[in-house]
Design brief:
- The protein is of the alpha/beta class.
- It folds into 3 domains: 228 residues, Rossmann fold (3-Layer(aba) Sandwich), CATH 3.40.50.12780; 67 residues, Luciferase, domain 3 (Roll), CATH 2.30.38; 95 residues, 2-Layer Sandwich (GMP Synthetase, Chain A, domain 3).
- It contains 16 helices and 27 strands.
- The strands form 6 sheets. The chain has a 9-stranded mixed beta sheet with strand order 2-1-11-10-12-13-14-15-16, with helices on both faces.
- α15 links the parallel β26 and β27.
Amino acid sequence: MNTTEFLNIASLIVPDRVAIVFEGARYTYAELKSRVNRLANALAGLGVGEGDRVAVLQVNTNEHVELCFAAAQLDAVYAPLNFRARADELSFMVEDAQPKVLVAGSRYVGMVDSFKGNLDSAPRLVSLEEPAEGWEFYDDMVATAPEEERFPQGDGADLTVLLFTSGTTSLPKGVMLSHDSFSSYILSNVSPVDPDDEERNILTVPLYHIAGMQTVMSSIYGGRTLIIQRQFDPKGWMELVETERANRAVMVPTMLKMLIDHDDFHDHDLSSLNIVTYGAAPMPFEVIKRAIQELPGVHFINAFGQTETAATITMLPPEDHILEGTEEEIERKLRRLTSVGKPLDDVDVRIVDDDANPVADGEVGEIVASGPRLMKGYWNQEEATSETFRGGWLYTGDLGYMDEDGYIYLAGRSKDFIKRGGEMISPEEVEQVLHSHQAIEEAAIIGVPDIDWGERVRAVVVLKDGQTAQDDEIIEYCRQRLASFKKPESVVFVSELPRNPMGKVLKRLLREEYDEPILG
């Protein structure tokens, strides 16, 4: 199914429903459809056609949604870029994608101007928010273009979105996602537009991330009102939920923690919230447990996936977040809160060993996936694509194990797993124990090279404000709760952990900074 149909259907069934709310502006589905049609014609006037890339460098705005669907009308490819990236990273992504058109917010125009002369390709430049010298102006393009609709000729297997990975361990890789990448998930897991059922979805995760893209696609297909926040800040988020009566939200763990820790958290009416989906980084057990208590009317969903899988491949549903029942049932649910749930119906998920054989329940292996919505491959990187796709399976690089009931538990990234004296240690298992310590705000586990043991375990710890703890106390705390070989043998105290924009700890940086040998 071509993703243009998501907007076409919603605009026919609920034309007068508000589709987008952004900083005081409101656009109905009919108005959004009209703007997309005009924009598609304007982009065609700039030479955009089948297979051409339309790159966008901007925080979350309504124009992102318009550009995504306008590009699809032209059988072109929408390529949102990481607005937090450095100039050299952005230059690389633009050179790699070679877009026909590059659209940028006013704060990024100067950055683009600084490197555009070094590009082999010369994209047409379009500014957002205000005119810029040497650039076309977006508002003028939409206002003056004809409104007749253009119809794509491609099919579901064609490329429609190019998302660049974060590049935390190397240069960013472009992940190629087809129309089927989105429609396979959405048709299987999202309720279609209903004229009698109106939902409001707040969007705060960035649109260069797969979670943001899936939120947009799901909202448009479901005929929901999409409430867009430029960038997440907890106070603004609570005000938007309260004033717009948002029903759904997608958050990363750091967002949820910032929210429930905020001084004004209890001063806002968040009772309209019905569903909060979280993911993109491991959720500390204590954070989700507290969130369940603080937001009693909310149904929580843990969604696990990655850009290469076009978002969610496993899900821990709301019923597993309801901590009710017998003592045995509650204990089982508490344990499952540390899992990422079960595979979704539209994708096949397995855990395999180094020889690609399925492992037994409880045994750690690599999580692999197969199905119609996986990425088409990495843009311009055939070798990386062949390394990731093997035997029809996508190797995620995430390690995990499955319990006897089919729930999957993460054990860390394959490159982060620690091998100490022949024993395999899951960083996430140790981190969960550290997060339960009353003095610890957050923690990360890394392996330190050792001539005798191969690797030894080091904890990098951030203490809560006003709290104190000694390294030997933390080591003993872990020893009492873990097998002895898994406990940290060294503790480093820091003020904060380095993270990427989606909240994932950059362990590569920690390993580089804290790689001194552990003595004794």
